[in-house]
Specification:
Structural class: mainly alpha
Number of helices: 8
Number of domains: 2
Helix content: 55-70%
Order of helices and strands: HEEHHHHHHH
Strand order of the largest sheet: 1-2
Distance between the termini: 72 Å
Mean pLDDT: 82
Strand content: 5-15%
Low-confidence stretches: 5-32
Length: 189
């Protein structure tokens, strides 16, 4: 019996090591007619929740994205897609110059998925604009840390990621530099 448990443990660790780089939002399965692609959205059991999220994800105009994000969060408060819904709503609010709501929705998203530099960087810039210097520095530092530690999001093409990553880092360093300069300029001598 101990050998069987040990064998299962070794197999589990080996599989975990092999799956380390697996993209969590796309899974491929072989079928007789070729390869069929399944996304993480296919794992949503509730068809209404799935449709609502796909509608939210496909919306382009900021007012519509904001409205759909708010509706999704209200109708599906137990969804495991809440972090993404809050993020979409936060970015829509940034586009609408509603920074207070953007910061609230962004905080909700980061509470569920804190290692999201694609949200941390725009929030750091907004926090700096609304004079939340400490929060802006924390967000920028966290974004830099996650950018150094994490691989690219699966939704971003490998060829585009180095440029996007460089822009995100530059923006984070700009926030840190601007906030450091403001602190030095206004600190008592």
């Amino acid at each position: 019996m101990k050998g069987s448990v040990l064998g299962k443990l070794v197999l589990g660790l080996a599989l975990a090591g092999l799956s380390r780089g697996q993209a969590i939002d796309t899974v491929l399965f072989r079928e007789s007619s070729g390869t069929k692609r399944f996304t993480i959205i296919d794992q949503v059991a509730d068809p209404q929740e799935r449709r609502a999220f796909l509608k939210l994800y496909g919306a382009h105009e900021p007012p519509k994205r904001r409205k759909l994000a708010e509706e999704f969060v209200a109708r599906h408060p137990q969804s495991w897609l809440l972090a993404q819904a809050y993020e979409i709503g936060a970015k829509a609010c940034i586009d609408l110059d509603d920074y207070a709501t953007a910061l609230q929705l962004g905080a909700q998203s980061l509470r569920l998925f804190p290692e999201n530099p694609l949200l941390l960087v725009p929030l750091a810039n907004i926090q700096a604009q609304v004079k939340q210097a400490h929060a802006a520095q924390e967000s920028a530092r966290a974004a830099l840390e996650y950018l150094d530690q994490s691989d690219r999001p699966a939704a971003i093409a490998a060829a585009k990621w180095p440029g996007i990553q460089a822009e995100l880092k530059a923006s984070s360093y700009f926030v840190l530099g601007r906030e450091s300069t403001m602190w030095v300029a206004f600190s008592p001598s």
